[in-house]
Amino acid sequence: MMKNIKTIVYMLVMSILLSSCENVLEKFPDDQINEVIVFSTVTKANGVLMGVYNEIAGTSYLGAGLYLRAAMKGTDFRAIKPSLNERNPLRVEYEYSETAILNGNAFNMWSSCYKALNNLNILLAKIDEVPGDDGERNRIKGEALALRAMIHFDLVRTFSYPWIIGNGSSQGIPLVVEVTGAAIIERGTVADVYAQVITDYKAAEALLSPVENSRFINKTAVQALLARTYLYQEDWANSLIYAEKVISTMGSSSLMNISNFTRDPFNSESLFELDLIHPNNSVGSSAISAQLTNDNGGQEDILATLSFKTLLTQFADDPRGQFFQEDRETTDELSYAKYLDVAQEGSHNVVVIRLSEVFLIAAEAAARSNGDGASYLFEVTQRRSTSYTLSTLTGDALVDEIAIERRKELAVEGHGVYDYIRRGKDITRVASDHENIPLDKITIKFDNYQTIYPIPIEEINASGMVQTQGGY
After folding, report:
1. Phi and psi torsions of 271, nearest 5°
2. Which of 138, 239, 325, 363 could form a disulfide with 377 if both were Cys (CB 3.0 to 4.6 A apart)?
């Protein structure tokens, strides 16, 4: 997959540049990229970056795949039993029945992410030489570094065991940080990947400006993603430091409250989100909104559980409990319309990270380091319902309370199963919520090999990469 890097990137960048470069396809062969043309100006270099944004917004990765996987393998959602295709990817993941061959959406995510990484590396190898404004060049470089870090982080938390298993010593994923024509099969360790992620994020932080337009990754978003990364790495001190940087920039007043809570795109909490509402960006029937609801012909392959609805509707004034609507299978209104079909385009923006998550990160990091975690938690909860009070819990009990709030606040935002396994907690489902799966899939141990994706068999066969230890 990673042997023909120039061919891969050629197809992407040439489609971007056709409108600005006449007769490019007539002048240069189709099996190579002419770097003189592609990197002749910062505007054209930025076109390569925009192509990467488009790639990561696709349904194989952030546009649906990662978020739906996280939800399906957790406790709060279930896949409707299909009448035709019993082995559709969502069902495979919901039932924990992945194998290296029958791997849900693993191959699609793997391919999309490494394609994006290859293109980012070509861009980073050339950007310092591109003629143009220094500020624009630094912005492009900073965004490319940040995206490279984010993709590696999502790959390692999806295809490798969490940090808590072996303190980062287990198998990582291949790090792709330079342009090479050879297949990269060395996996290293989880700790190796985290070190590179942090290095790239910090380099990006130095180049970017604070959030102005959350359509693109920015300094504030990078700091938020660093806080998330350190949380997964169990580095509570640094997680809190970076969360507080974001909170200092944004202020608690940017948190939505009961009266102005909205699912609208680019709201006051948005730090970085992918713009999928524009017709040119819509992913149609494969969008998260189409999977969760039957609006405008949506497929509604996923329903919330009754237990989750009970949790979210605990307080009548909590706006998050108003996302439920009539579904096509039950009488309990378990269609979870957090993502709306906007303007019948089949899509809703996908939020990569927002301010409420950062407050919850700060709460957990502080609670784990004997800090004032309850106050950060209360900054969020008091804005969701007047019934919430300042928690009096500390330590592990407070962390558990924060975890419940993360389920409520961050549902279908790419956390789900990850929030269980990174904390060493088994995925314990309520049996009455999950009646159409085998009994041995009601409770899944956090270190079960099927909590993570296998390396796709296509990659194993093509490159000889070593498969994940433990079951595949």
Report:
1. -105, -35
2. 363
